[in-house]
Design a protein that fits this description.
Blueprint: H1 5-23, H2 28-38, H3 40-60, E1 66-75, H4 85-92, H5 94-112, H6 117-124, H7 127-144, E2 151-164, H8 168-235, H9 240-275, H10 304-310, H11 312-333, E3 338-349, E4 361-371, H12 379-446, H13 451-485
Antiparallel strand pairs: 1-2, 2-3, 3-4
Length: about 500
């Protein structure tokens, strides 16, 4: 296979992109960008928005005239007959009936006037010819009225232009426009959900990476202590029980480190899935190597007005209320007069424009169609009231969600401030834990602190560092949740 220049360039660019991705550390912004470009749920929402756009374009075509073509063929067992069997028999025997009537009239006249009998006998000589001619004429009439309609073919081209449909066309057009807005708001809501999920996965990965380093430090600290305890036991300055207690703590530290490693692997896989990266890739994060994460410690006041303006869910509910209002118009239009202009051309074989002629022939026609409901036992009134009730329900639902949004924004702001307060406490606690560990290590080296006190100081140091990491990450997650709550 011969590779073209374009194929080679594409392969080189792909390799360069993979190498760049492997070397460049991902930031929260870059993760969000990848997720917004590659997330499957967002692709579905984008397609739904396109679908709503096409439906809106389809609704607008209802203002325009529609042209349709209809054609058909039908074979019937019987043909249409314009004459009854009795009428056919009468026509076929027209000459016989006429000749018989004349002959009877001649006989009656001859009875009354015997002297004219020779003349009347000469007249009757013409009756056979008259009979044949009359029968022939009747047969010709019967054949002329023969339809032969067992094989029928017809076609119709019809043009229909709505003139007034009770406002239904305009209402459908408006509904499709509003549905397009609903789809746009849904896309924006899905974007906010994806951004929040990416932020949570990113900071969870950063938290686990920091805890992995912390667990490694704690394991190394215990391993060093375990080595020292082995030497102290050999020299007789420590008991076997002290060495075993350190060994147990070391094994627990190894198990904790293994659990953190597994959780970090799963967290990276989740982040890769959200960003559209291969699950087996191990992207480097810009914040995972930082020993101290910067956190916004400024107090936060809930901005309910911003949430009511920006939340896509509230926009969807407001649009839904407008859609139900348009549905009221649609229900009302079904019980209003509807007027349409029609024009078309009809062709058939056999056609009736020149008797029943066995060839295609047609005619054009133009007209106006009016449909006006007269009496429906109040059906229209009840349907309109039901549609208005749905609109009222949509308005009440929006009011309820507004209250829930206000509560959510207030709670998220409270969580942000609480996370900042916990961060301050964790920092102070960490300073005390580090000083406590330093004092315990010095005391243990001088022999005035026993092994259990040193292990307790190390455990407190580990817990303080873990609490600080959790507090730092919590401030990030709470602010991300607050940003989503106000619709940013």
């Amino acid at each position: 296979m011969i590779l073209t220049t374009r194929t080679l360039l594409a392969a080189v660019c792909a390799l360069m992109a993979c190498g760049l991705q492997a070397q460049t550390a991902l930031t929260p912004d870059s993760c969000r960008k990848l997720a917004l470009e590659r997330n499957k749920q967002l692709a579905i929402s984008q397609t739904a928005l396109q679908k709503a756009h096409f439906e809106q374009q389809a609704a607008r075509t209802n203002y325009l005239p529609k042209l349709s073509l209809t054609a058909g063929y039908m074979r019937t067992g019987k043909q249409v007959s314009l004459l009854s069997d009795e009428q056919k028999h009468t026509l076929n025997n027209l000459g016989t009936s006429a000749a018989g009537g004349i002959s009877q009239a001649v006989q009656q006249f001859a009875t009354q006037h015997p002297d004219l009998l020779p003349l009347l006998q000469g007249l009757t000589a013409y009756l056979p010819g008259l009979e044949l001619a009359g029968n022939s004429l009747g047969q010709q009439l019967t054949d002329a009225l023969h339809t032969d309609t067992r094989n029928m073919t017809a076609g119709l081209i019809l043009l229909t232009q709505p003139l007034y449909m009770g406002g239904k066309i305009r209402a459908y057009d408006r509904i499709t426009q509003l549905q397009q807005q609903v789809a746009a708001d849904q896309l924006r809501a899905d974007r906010n959900e994806v951004v929040l999920a990416v932020d949570q996965a990113y900071w969870q990965t950063v938290s686990l990476a920091n805890k992995q380093r912390l667990a490694t430090q704690y394991r190394d600290m215990l391993a060093h202590l375990d080595s020292d305890m082995a030497k102290m036991v050999a020299e007789g300055v420590a008991t076997r029980s002290n060495a075993l207690s350190v060994g147990v703590k070391l094994n627990e530290a190894e198990m904790t480190l293994a659990k953190v490693d597994d959780a970090l692997t799963l967290s990276r896989m989740l982040l890769c899935q959200l960003c559209g990266l291969p699950l087996d890739s191990k992207p480097s994060l810009a914040d995972e190597q930082r020993a101290c994460l910067e956190a916004d410690e400024s107090p936060l006041a809930p901005d309910v007005d911003a949430a009511l303006r920006n939340r896509p869910e509230l926009g969807q509910l407001a649009t839904a209320h407008e859609i139900y209002a348009e549905k009221v118009k649609i229900e009302r239009s079904a019980f209003l007069p509807q007027v349409a202009l029609t024009a078309g051309y009809l062709v058939s074989n056999p056609n009736v424009f020149n008797s029943f002629e066995r060839k295609f022939n047609g005619t054009w026609g133009i007209g106006v169609m009016l449909k006006m409901p007269v009496w429906n036992w109040g059906e229209g009134k009840y349907k309109v009231r039901a549609a208005r009730a749905e609109a009222a329900m949509a308005a009440l639902r929006r009011d309820e969600v507004c209250e829930q949004v206000e509560l959510q924004v207030t709670q998220e702001a409270f969580r942000v401030n609480e996370a900042v307060r916990k961060l301050h406490l964790s920092v102070r606690n960490l300073d005390k834990a580090e000083e406590n560990l330093r004092t315990a290590q010095v005391g243990f080296a001088e022999g005035v602190i026993n092994t259990s006190d040193l292990l307790a100081a190390q455990t407190a140091w580990l817990q303080a560092h873990s609490d600080k990491i959790d507090a730092q990450i919590d401030t990030k997650l709470c602010r991300a949740a607050y940003a989503k709550a106000i619709g940013l």
